[in-house]
Amino acid sequence: MSRLPGWLSRLGTGVARAGERLEERRARAEAADEPAPEPVALGVSKSPDGDEGSPGNGNGNGTVPAPPAYAPAIAAKADPVAAVPWSVRVAAEAGWRFLVLAGTLWVLMRAISSVQLVVFAFVAALLITALLQPTVSRLKRMGLPRGLATAVTFIAGFVIMGLVGWFVVWQVMENLDDLSNQVQRGIDELQKWLLDSPFHVTGDEINDIAKNLRDAVGTNTEEITSAGLAGVTVMVEILTGILLAMFSTLFLLYDGKRIWRWSLKLVPAAARPGVAGAGPRAWRTLTAYVRGTVIVALIDAIFIGIGIYFLDVPMAVPLAVFIFLFAFIPLVGAVVSGALAVVVALVTQGVFTALMALIVVLAVQQIEGHVLQPFILGRAVRVHPLAVVLSVAAGGMVAGIGGAVVAVPLVAVTNTVVGYLRTHAQENALQQAAAATQEPAARTAEDSP
To answer: Each residue of 342-374: pLDDT tens digit?
Structure first.
C-alpha cells in the first residue's frame, strides 16, 4: 500500500504534461490556420466600437476585395491643359484675341456706316482745317485776333473753293454743246475707221449695236428715272455734308486746341501722356500730307492743262480742274483723270492728238512720282507704295470715293502714332529700369557710415 501513492503521483504528472503538450500543439495549429485580412468595404463606415454603418452602394454588403500585392501600380492621368502642346495653346490664345479685335472692328465699322455722312463731313473738315490752319497761325503772328484771323481764313478758303466749283460747272455748261458735236463727229470718224479697218466690221453690225443701245435706254426708262430721283437725294446729302463740314471747320480753326484737350480727358490716365505726345505729331503729319498733296495736284493740273490746251483739246480748263481734284486719290485718281483727258482728245481731235495728250500725261505723272512727291512730301509722310495701293483699294471697297481719299492720310497718321507710342513705351521702360537700378545704390550709400 505504501507504493500506490507514488505511482499515482507519477501518473498524474504525466497526464498534466501530456495536456500541456496538447495545448501547445493546439496553439501552433491555430497560429498556422489564422484567417486573411478583412476585406475593404466601399461606402461603409465603422464606428469607434467596431459597428459598421450601412453600405453606400446599396448592394447588400458593398465590399470590394483589396488588390493583391503583386498588382502593378496605375499612374494618375495628366491634366488636360498640360496634355495640349504649347504651340497649340499659343495659337488658341492669339486666335480668340484676334476674334475679339475683329468683332470690335466689325461693330465699329457698322456704327460708322450708320452715320457715314457725319463721319465723312468731319474727316473733310479735318483735311480742310489742316490746309487752312497755317494761314490762321500766320495771321495771328501778324497781330490779328484769333476770331478775326479764323473768320478771314474760313471765308477766303470756302469762297475760293466755291469759285473753283462754279468755274468748272460754268465751263462744262458753256462747252457742252460744242463738245457733244465734236464727240458725234468723232464717233462718225470712228465708224468710218471701223468700216475700213481689217477687222471686217460691216455697217449692219454697227447699226445693230446702235439699235441695241437705243432699245436698252428705252426699256430702262423707269430705272433711269429712279436713278434721277436718287440723284436728287444724293445732292441733298451732299449739301448737308458740305454744311456740316463748314461748321466743323469753323470750330476746329477757332477752338481746335481746346477740343483736343477735352478729348484727352476721355483717355485713361495711364495712356494719357503717350496720346498727348502722339496727337501733335499726327497733326503735323496730316498737315504735311494735305499741303504736299495740294501742291503736287496743282502742278499736275497746270502742266497737263497747258499741254492739252496747246493740243486744242476742248474744255482744257475744266479738265485741268478735274485733274486737280482727282489727284487727292493717290495712284487711282491720276490714272482716271489722265485717261479722261486722253479720251476727250481721242473723240474730238483724233488718234494723233490723243497720243500726244497721253505722252503729256505720262510725262507729268512720271515727274510727279519721282521728283515732286519725294521732294515736297519728304520724310514727313513716308508710306510704302504697297501700303498706298492696299489702303486705297480697301477704302474704295468700304466707302467708295470718300474712303479712297481718306485711306492714305489715315494710314500715314496711324504710322506716325504707332511709331511714337512704341518709342514712348521703350523710353518709359528704360527710365523705370534706370530708376530701379539707382534706388538700391542710393540706399546703400545712405546706410554706409
So the answer is: 888 877 777 788 888 888 888 888 887 777 777
Residues 130 and 287 sit within 8 Å (Cβ to Cβ): yes
- What phi and psi, each to the nearest 5 degrees, are found at residue 23? -65, -40
- Tell me how far apart the alpha carbons of residues 311 and 346 are, in angstroms, rounded to a whole number: 11
What pTM was estimated for this model as a whole? 0.64
Question: What is the percentage of the chain residues whose pLDDT exceeds 90?
Answer: 1
Q: What does the block give as the cell for 121? A: 463731313
Question: What nine digits make up the cell of 276?
Answer: 498727348
Q: Give the three-state DSSP class for 337.
A: helix
| β-pair partners for 46 | 52
Cβ 255 vs Cβ 339: under 8 Å = no
pLDDT at 446 over 60: no
Q: Is 398 exposed, middle or buried (0-12, 13-18, 19+ CB in 10 A)?
A: middle
Q: Which of 80-84, 133-137, 308-312, 391-395 comes out lowest in average pLDDT? A: 80-84
Question: Closest Cα partner for 343 from 190, 173, 168, 206?
Answer: 190
